[in-house]
Amino acid sequence: MKIKRRAAAYGVCRSADGSVLLTRGSDASAFPGVWSLPGGGIDHGEHPDDTVVREFAEETGLAVRITGVRTVLADLARLPDGTVEHTDRIVYDVAVTGGELTPEADGTTDLVAWVAPADVAARPLLPFTAGVLGVTFPPADLGELPAGLTPERTGPVQRFGAYALATDPAGRILLTRIADGYPGGGRWHLPGGGTDFGETPEGALARELHEETSQRGRITGLVGVSHRYDPAAVGPEGVPLEWHVIRVVYQVTVPEPTVAAVTEAAGGSTAEAAWCTLEQARNLPLTELTRDALGRTG
Questions:
Q1: What CATH number has the domain bearing residue 118?
Q2: pTM for the full model?
Q3: Confidence label for 296 from pLDDT (cuts 50, 70 and 90)
Q4: What does residue 241 show for φ and ψ, rounded to 5 degrees?
Q5: What's 120's DSSP letter?
Q6: Rounded mean pLDDT of 86-96?
Q7: Between 25 and which of 29, 113, 195, 210 could a Cys-Cys bridge form, CB atoms 3.0 to 4.6 Å apart?
Q8: Is 23 helix (H, G, I), strand (E, B) or coil?
Q9: Which are the contacts of 61, defined by CB distance < 8 A and separation ≥ 6?
Q10: What is the structure's pLDDT at 144?
Q11: Are both 177 and 113 inside the same structural domain?
């Protein structure tokens, strides 16, 4: 079975009357004639924020600014050549700041239009677009997929990860120490990690939280989206990765905390886990993701 992964960013843009901006897939796209939110693939090393602004300019002719992160999704689709594709999608809310509505020329879309709320369901929509806009659609039937599918690495590594800014009722913060030999080795990080093929960000976060810290938590919000591009990063095998990780950080509550302990197999990327007060955390060598998340939430 041929499989592939991609990460993409999209925007929900509405006019004063509630119409939503949609683009139609061209003959060069995987699904010609099907409508989608404007957006597309995140280039290697590109911040997802920059992706959605770039894609809007290319597909709609409009300049936009981001007003918030609406949701983060993952889905599987069977492409016309039989490949099963896993796409991680960051969906933003955006507002128009300038430009003139213009369809893309010689790209994967060929038409752009403001669509009234009452008319959205009448158009053929990509499933993720239908879901974001509240349109009911039948789930795709991909048949039985083997467990443990992993796309073959053929170039630079782009990874999609979900992380937890996790706290307990006492206000302590849950942190993990990255094992030596991994990017950021020795620094204290937010629990979490890469999503597996076919896995949702929420599912990956629950799995990683238990593997790295032995805790069970509940997602209460979305802190934000970031990325890290490190062309010089070297993995534990000593092989350069040209590392690009796209990261979604969730606010998580652990209502019944236990002693933090790593439960994943020896040799993994997590060396240690601990509950810390804010004062203790300030005195630790933190990753920039951890510092940024703590700064965003005060």
A1: 3.90.79.10
A2: 0.92
A3: confident
A4: -110, -20
A5: G
A6: 98
A7: 29
A8: strand
A9: 99, 100, 101, 102, 103, 112
A10: 65
A11: no
Is residue 272 a contact partner of residue 188, using CB atoms and an 8 Å limit?
no
Residue 48 sits in the same domain as residue 166: no
For residue 69, count other CB atoms closer than 10 A to its CB.
18
Total structural domains within the chain? 2
Q: For 155-220, give the secondary structure using H, E and C.
A: CCCEEEEEEEEEECCCCCEEEEEECCCCCCCCCEECCEEECCCCCCHHHHHHHHHHHHHCCCCEEE
- If residue 127 lies in a helix (H) or strand (E), which one and from where to where? helix 127-132
Whose tokens are 């290697």? That residue is: 44
Q: Domain range for residue 27?
A: 3-132
Q: What is the pLDDT of residues 232-259, one digit of tens each?
A: 777 666 666 788 999 999 999 999 999 9
SS3 231: coil
Q: Which residues contact 294 (CB under 8 A, 6 or more apart)?
A: 165, 173, 278, 281, 286
Nearest-angstrom CA–CA distance, 201 and 223:
14
Whether 46 is in a domain gets the answer yes
- Residue 112 shares a structural domain with residue 225: no
Helix (H, G, I), strand (E, B) or coil at 123: coil
- The verdict on 8 and 47 lying in the same domain is yes
Who's near 291: CB < 8 A, 6+ residues apart? none
C-beta of residue 274 within 8 angstroms of C-beta of residue 286: no
Half-sphere exposure of 147 (CA within 13 A, CB side): 0
User: Tokens 């652990």 — which residue?
Assistant: 254
Tell me, yes or no, whether 192 lies in a domain. yes
With CA atoms as reference, report the closest residue to 61 among 89, 34, 98.
Answer: 98
Q: Do residues 98 and 11 share a domain?
A: yes
Residue type, 206: A
Residue 42 half-sphere exposure toward CB, CA atoms < 13 A? 31
Q: What is the mean pLDDT of the chain?
A: 93
pLDDT at 155: 73
**CA–CA gap between residue 33 and residue 23 (Å, rounded):** 9
- 293 and 192 belong to one structural domain: yes
* Residue 97 maps to a domain: yes
